[in-house]
Amino acid sequence: MVAQAGREARARTLALNYRLAPEHPFPAALDDALTGYRFLLASGIAPARIALAGESAGGGLALATALSLREVGLPLPGCLWLSSPWVDLALTGPSMESKAAVDPLLSRAYLSELAGLYLNGADARGPLVSPINADLTGLPPTLIQVGSAETLLDDSVRLAAVAGIADVAVDLEIWPHMIHAWHLFYQEVADGQLSLAHAGSFIREHLYPKI
């Protein structure tokens, strides 16, 4: 999927094998993401030519990475692409219940277990683990893609509102009947292929604008 997204964006891709909980809880993954971004800058890649992307928990991590970059004064990427992002580890979104019957992958109980392993005592509402609670001012243009059949639907809907309030240019795409991380099935699901094409177009538009 990462390679296909790169083809659609006409860009090289770098997939980070960041450390995972429970062996490596917060902030290990965030530290690794920041290390990866610094590697790109040190390699001579202009930040305006970098699209920072993540799916599911990786979507929240990508957003937390951008927030951390802003806080330490490093240049921000040209755009963000967040696919089915999990940005509220306190699980307060109404779709946790309203979409429970149609989401075949993610339940409140399962997500609660994962959140506990990742947090390892950290505050579930902290802005670097639940960036829906952060001030997003100054972040780059952001594409959010989410399926309508996800318990995480409201994470995306509320995140788009938070971004808009902070004057971030945000595109929210809600894909009817799609389940969590449907992009992974792009070879079998037409909307998976199409959603990657949309993401590629968004990335090209912001990294290589026409002059």
TrEMBL record:
Gene3D superfamilies xrefs: alpha/beta hydrolase
One Gene Ontology molecular-function label: hydrolase activity
Domain Alpha/beta hydrolase fold-3 stretches: 4-183
Keywords, comma-separated and alphabetical: Hydrolase
InterPro entries found in the cross-reference section: AB_hydrolase_3, AB_hydrolase_fold, GDXG_lipolytic_enzyme
UniProt-listed Pfam families: Abhydrolase_3
Domain of life the protein comes from: Bacteria
UniProt entry tagged with the keyword Transcription regulation: no
Family: Belongs to the 'GDXG' lipolytic enzyme family.
Protein name: Monoterpene epsilon-lactone hydrolase
Source organism (scientific name): Methylobacterium trifolii
